[in-house]
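User: For my dataset I need records formatted as: sequence, then structure tokens, nothing else. Please produce one.
Assistant:
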Amino acid sequence: MITGDRHENDFDNLSEILLFKIEEYIHQKFHQAFYDKEELQDILFETINFVNDLQIVYTKVAPCFPPKYNIFNIYKNKYLEYIQDKMKPFIDEKKLEQNPGNLILIARWLDKFTDGLRKVGIDIKSTEIGNVKIIF
């Protein structure tokens, strides 16, 4: 026999499963996009694609879900986490000494990156990537 409490627990589990599946989807999407990417230019290109994708989540996907699921914030937090993880090796002091020209690529990327985030209401003033604090 199923009681009222049992049904509530089932629905709580469904919510957890939903959120887990969304995070799993995001992880797979990042893994597929970056699987064979090792060069800075390729990684920068893919990260901008994800910022553009975040704009689609903001305008098309998030409105489909009830507000309590906070879908946009889940995507935003996971995307930024994965992007920062991808950028960390390239901000390393030793890497930058070996390839100082990468600073120019990263500076251009930062402009596109922050502009894309502003389009979805994210105004990042500063962030840390690796042990380097970047102020926008």
